[in-house]
Amino acid sequence: MQTVNDIRQEFKQLLQTKEFVTDRSGSKTIEILGASFLANESAIFGTPNKEYIDAEIEWYKTQSTNINVLKEIYGKAPAAWQYTANDSGEVNSNYGYLIFSDRFHRQYDKVVAELVNNPYSRRAQLVYNRPSIWSEYNEQGKNDFICTNAQTFYIRDKKLHMVSQMRSNDAIFGYKNDYAWARYVQGSIVKEYNMYMRYVDRDRVVVGDLHWQVMNLHVYERHFELI
Question: Which listed residue (147, 172, 214, 217) is catalytic?
Answer without folding.
Answer: 147
